[in-house]
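Because discrete structure vocabularies remain unfamiliar, we first show an illustrative case, written as a sequence plus integers encoding its fold.
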Amino acid sequence: MKTLLAVDGSDNSYEAVHIMNYLARAEQLTLLHALDVPRPAYPEMMPEAAEELYKTLEQSMKEDGERLLNRVQSLLPLHAGPTTKHLKVGSPAGVIVSMAEEQKADLIVMGARGLGPIKERLLGSVSHQILTLASCATLIVNGPVKAMKQILLPLEGPSDAEAAIRFLRLKPFHEAVELTLMTVLPWTEPPWPSGAAAEAAATEILEKQTDYIEGVAERLRAIGYKAHGVAVIGTPATMILQQAATLRSDLIMMGTRGRQGITRFVLGSVSHAVLHKTPCPVLAFHS
């Protein structure tokens, strides 16, 4: 698996470095620091002076960036894999997505920077752009990671399931993990039938979903994972968060549709509720 680790020196960025302890040895590991060098905001400054100030600032930021990359490299686990370091100037999201495409990365790993409730409270604008634009899986680390044993995998349908199996075949984790597959049937009060008939219909649907999710779990067991499935009725975001809290999940995996944007559990109200309140990192894979 080819991995790109994007770092910016923030606390969560260092947590992203730490999570490499729980990921499998990379075929190729790319360390990337993007420099978003601000232009001088002084309208009355002579262009020559403004350019000189910009170049001085750029050089200083490059030196800081080189020191950051060297420190990150020194913190990587021994099993991280062959590593290259890259320092690029430009918009962080654009630089990261372009580098991921250039390196044909299977996974981007990065920390989330909290920006308050108005600007993607936990994801941060850069993380959100990358989740939306990147053509590979993205792991967003939002705080300290102490283990990687319990993984919650919400699935909405066959496309999510196939994508999850495809990604998990890459064997992305360093040690054995336990997967809890989950499907949530949104509760609605049907106009007809009602009463016992409605309850019986809901029970039948839930049983079918349970059989389906267990079938997916069986496929994962066949490729070496410890996996089981659960089907519940309720509000998707609430049930996902409750299940993550109950299991003390170390990671939530969710499906995306790449350049068309995060879908289903990710961009809609469910995704915002989950991603902004999740107690653990989120790995978004492509369905």
Observations:
- Residues 34 and 95 are 6 Å apart (CA to CA).
